[in-house]
């Protein structure tokens, strides 16, 4: 007679699988948010470090609370509602007419964000390797296009495992940047008014809100689709919290590391490579590969999101559109410098994201009140 596992063994197996799925969801969130802006340090410099202590900790706290809320909402709503199309999440929160606006605006913004990833890859090749930015941009677009060709299941599998690694390495670099120059944090904070830094907004509060604004435009359809794969609401909720908190803490640590070395990183396209270069050329070269991996982990779901808006995943039109968008994105992304692309594309779209955040909060509060009355 075949032996069956004991109830306790079966429960342990179920819990282990659930924990792995939670880690995968968290990793996918982190990997999606890393992108070229975070991995290079340009995003952190403009949204966090440029405001000094208030930017690192104040903006960091705003981002921690709101990104975690947004991730939980999108993942759990995707799990509960199981929309036919992920973009229907906008009609759920915004109503029919505004939902249509957000749907089309979202597609445009996500595509422009993909062009920023192309620009980031080009900047790495140009600034670190001394090669043409076209080599990096075209290479990234080609690899991303082929990855999206294979569909979301494989996509989540890949990026969910790369994301946590990149965050750990970025945190280590940030900590080492602080340790090697501990007095640099106070000196950097005092020096900020004298530096000609590009800032995302007029103050750290708006910077935090606008940062969440553009991040949530990225996350909307991707996490809604990802939420459908969760086996329970608890898995979706836990994965979202872990992902949101991990990413926010990483932003603050990296922000401090850049502040401690603000004179060195000011005016560079890839600030994080400056921190890595202080540890030696081998470390810098290794980290340049990490940056490219971070760009890849965000570029893939961005491109997938746009293609899936128009055609079913894995269909022939989906695949052809993916390749066409990758080619167009390459042309657009290599026109302007990377730092300028970050500032233009993200900042212009931040406030539309803030409007979406407001509508989400209203919907959440209304839903909670209705549930309590029932």
Q: Can you walk through the features of this model?
A:
The chain crosses the membrane at residues 20-39, 51-77, 98-125, 131-152, 164-183, 203-227, 239-262, 282-306, 318-338, 344-362. Keywords: Membrane, Transmembrane, Transmembrane helix. This is Membrane protein YkvI. There is one protein chain. The chain is 83% helix and 0% strand. It is an all-alpha fold and 374 residues long. It has a single domain (27-364), classed as Amino acid/polyamine transporter I (Up-down Bundle).
Could you state the order of secondary-structure elements as H and E?
Answer: HHHHHHHHHHHHHHH
Radius of gyration: 21 Å
Mean pLDDT rating? 85
Low-confidence stretches: 7-12
CATH class: Mainly Alpha
Observed structural traits:
374 residues, transmembrane, mainly alpha
Summarize the structure.
This is Membrane protein YkvI. By secondary structure, the protein is an all-alpha fold. It has helices at 7-40, 42-47, 52-81, 89-94, 96-127, 133-149, 152-180, 184-191, 204-227, 233-260, 262-265, 271-277, 281-310, 316-333, 338-373.
List the helices and strands and how they pair.
Layout: H1 7-40, H2 42-47, H3 52-81, H4 89-94, H5 96-127, H6 133-149, H7 152-180, H8 184-191, H9 204-227, H10 233-260, H11 262-265, H12 271-277, H13 281-310, H14 316-333, H15 338-373
